[in-house]
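Hi there,

I know you've been waiting on this one. I reran it after we fixed the sequence typo, so this is the corrected version. Both the input and the resulting structure follow.
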Amino acid sequence: MEPINGKTIERLSLYRRLLKKIYTEGTGYFYSHDLAKMAHVTSVQVRRDLMYIGYSGNNRKGYETKGVMDSIGEIMDTKNGMNICIVGIGNLGKALVNFLHDKSEKLKITALFDIDENLIGKNYMGVPCYHVDRLSEKISEENISIGMIAASSRSAKDIAEKMTASGIKAIINYTTTPLNLPENTFLEEIDITTSLEKASYFAKVLGEKKISQECGKKILVIDDDSDIVNIYTVILKKNGYEVSSSLNSKEGFSMISKFKPDLIILDIMMEDPDAGFLFLNELKEKNINIPVILQSSIAKATSNVLDVSQLNIKIILQKPVDPDDLILKIKKYI
């Protein structure tokens, strides 16, 4: 039988664990989309994988849960199971012993190895720990096929060489030292540091994406003071907003249909002393319900004469506006 590629084996292993869970809960049959949802793959991928191992479903009932588990077992398991050894019984090695103990009927940890005299001769979860010098001897005696390296990185290469020379056919390397093994040996390298840094990177990227999604609204700034427009543009973009601007109300109004802003920051006195008021009235007449933050050097007087609720004005701010306060107001209103 031709070897199945590693990614397919990973999925089959995951399928079996998921199916075992739902089988113990009483689910005798399942559909491909049910398993796909649990495994975070497509239903097409599930059907393809199950067809690959020679298992087809029933249109009415779907796939038989136990039947699929058994079929996966026939592909992945050996009749008598396989024995495993772990070299390096520090914190990671002990954690592996605890986690893997009784996890599989077909995979059994039978020997542990270390150089620490305080560990040698002791049992962990019923598994004896030997000096690493006895590695070759015990691999032969225990018929061990899989080796796991959780020792120091500097010793990983020597340990791997002893393992392969003693007949080990598959090695899982938990150290940061890359290994080069013979072609007829399977190698799985699990670099926890790299995985953590990878997780850190994507946490950063997704966090930035979330901020971008939250803040990435469109804001139209209409003010005849180019310095204010430039300052606002820098501040708003730094906070994740998309910004467009105009130095007069007429051009600003024409930009609404093109830019489709989520909020407008509007000055009152621009090309004409009442330009802002006329802009607000036009918004009302055309039933354009975009929230407006009004700013003015005469904010108090303006608030006394304007009916804020009627003109969709959210707030009137006194110039000069504090940048932090402006951002807080924007977050409140969009």
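Quick highlight: The mean pLDDT is 89.

Best,
R. S.
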